[in-house]
Amino acid sequence: MPAFPKFKTIITDYGKQRLIAAMSPGGTKLTLTQMAVGDGGGNPTNPDTTSTALVNEVWRAAVNSVSVDKTHSNIIIVELLIPAEVGGFWVREAGIYDEFNKLVAICSLPASEKPLLEQGSGRAQTVRMTLIVSDTSIVNITIDSTTIMATNEYVDNSLEEHEKSRNHPDATLTDKGFTKLYSGVTSIDETMAATPKAVKIAMDNASARLAKERNLADLTNIPLARQSLQLGNSATLNVGTTANTVAAGDDSRITGAMQKSQNGGDIPDKKKFARTIGAVTSTNITFNDASGWYKIATVVMPQSTSTAVIKLYGGSGYNVGSFEQAAISELVLRAGNGSPVGITATLWRRSPAAANEVAWVNTSGDTYDIYINIGQHAYWLIAQYDYTGNANVTLHSTPEYSSVQPGSSTSGQTYTLYNSLMKPTAGDVEALSVNGGRLNGALGIGTDNALGGNSIVFGDNDTGFKWHSDGVLGIYANNALVGYIDNSGLHMSVDVLSNGAIRAGNAKKLSLTSNNNSTMTATFNLWGDANRPTVIELDDDQGWHLYSQRNPDGSIVFTVNGDITANTLRAGEAIYQNNGDIFGSAWGGWLSNW
């Protein structure tokens, strides 16, 4: 008989790959789900790492448990419980499978019979395999919650562990159990029980409290109590309008007082109040009669993202009914972070009579003079301003004037806020006017344009017209040039199909028509070759009808593929009448007279 090594457990090549993958960062833990036993085909087995299945599997089930050995932390124990009612086979080998039903480990076992109960003997049998790994955390340690049988060892160990633990039910408001004692008086936890000490503290505290039914009559020091409540002398004074009384009702000391909850809403002249306390950052500015540049403000803008805003109400002109003169202009000033040093200024226009441009001059450091350009007759405008805490704005009520932009100034950016008064032109928004205009580039109607160049497509992105050269317009279908138009006419490289007539000429026309009631299709064809230079032929679906042919010598032949019906036939001077009479020089006249 062949010699086999001793009984052993081997991790398969696949199992090694799973363990290595589980140890890598972000790897998935190995889950051992099933064990199988086999009879080895009736012979002892010699498993190796390349094994992917048992020699002869006889029974398989979910693992009963996967646990770590209590004395060796690097050993994993996997158990399979074979119930008493299962049997009728020998056990010589066993294997462990993962969640993908692939063999992770295999072992050879001493041969043991697992009989059926009806064979007169039966017992539950436990098959245990142990795996040595470097890190047990890479394997899911589980006990199958669906297992309905446990080994005696598992039950005994669980009972012993429970008896030694303090994991017993706690008492609740409805059930008995263990509870924790507490001697304090500040907790609201209902899972602990109060000690006599805690009860005494609570009773002593209650005895020192005021009785609700006494209505403060049990106070021992009334003045001290009033002081503790921060009640002043008025708490003991009566209501009245004389000295040593307090105001009430319609007393002017009450009705004329500001109410905190109104947040200033009960101030009669709010604007005057705001000016009195210096809360309104606004001033009046008047320009002279001329249009030009005016220095309206001096600002300090530190290079730490400071911001300032100036808003002007009113514009150039003062004519009643010219609503655009009631204009709004907004200036926004913004400093950077010092890289580079300076500010930017934008002007937002809402009306044609508003300011036109903005510019600034850096006079020193973070100080800048702000200029605007505005039209004439800009009298008595209102200017409001605001700024961040690290900046400052000083408005000039009578600004300096210059007919031209100061030479050392930097121009800002002007933005127009379009509205019903200032509507954008088609050019402003790069649109095509309804009155006509020029479109630069390709146009697609209902689709994108794939023809490119100076073209227009309809529905299909490569079907339409495209300019080729001076006086030449190409016709495209599915990106193929099917014809073109120039000053000599329409040129087509494909068939021309018409449901109506094709007419040529001006006053008197030549028409090519079809009544659409023929049983066959007719063709009028021009063709030729070396022997027949020019052939004009009429055909239908069954063949040719007739043709006129130019021969190489210049002569012409007219041929009919069938009968010719005519009142009179002429051939030179000869005549053939429809009554059979013939006229010709051979007869000296009519044959009937010969």
Report on this structure:
By secondary structure, the chain is mainly β. Among the domains are: 9-164, no CATH class; 170-206, no CATH class; 275-416, no CATH class; 443-492, no CATH class. Helices cover 9% and strands 37% of the residues. The chain has six helices and 39 strands. The strands form ten sheets. It has a six-stranded mixed beta sheet, with no helix packed on it. The radius of gyration is 56 Å and the shape is flat.
Relevant terms:
594 residues, mainly beta, 6-stranded mixed sheet, flat
Question: What's the arrangement of secondary structure elements?
Answer:
Blueprint: E1 9-11, H1 13-23, E2 32-38, E3 57-62, E4 65-68, E5 75-82, E6 89-98, E7 103-114, E8 125-132, H2 152-164, E9 180-182, E10 192-194, H3 196-207, H4 222-228, E11 238-239, E12 245-246, H5 252-255, H6 270-276, E13 282-285, E14 292-300, E15 307-313, E16 328-335, E17 343-349, E18 357-364, E19 367-374, E20 381-387, E21 392-402, E22 410-411, E23 413-416, E24 443-445, E25 455-458, E26 464-469, E27 472-477, E28 480-486, E29 489-492, E30 502-505, E31 509-512, E32 523-527, E33 534-540, E34 543-550, E35 556-560, E36 568-571, E37 574-577, E38 582-584, E39 589-590
Parallel strand pairs: 9-10, 11-12, 17-23, 24-25
Antiparallel strand pairs: 1-7, 2-3, 2-6, 4-5, 5-8, 6-7, 13-20, 14-19, 14-21, 15-16, 15-20, 16-17, 18-19, 18-22, 25-26, 26-27, 27-28, 28-29, 30-31, 32-33, 33-34, 34-35, 36-37, 37-38, 38-39
Subcellular location: Virion
Domain Phage tail fibre protein N-terminal: 6-152
Protein name: Phage tail protein
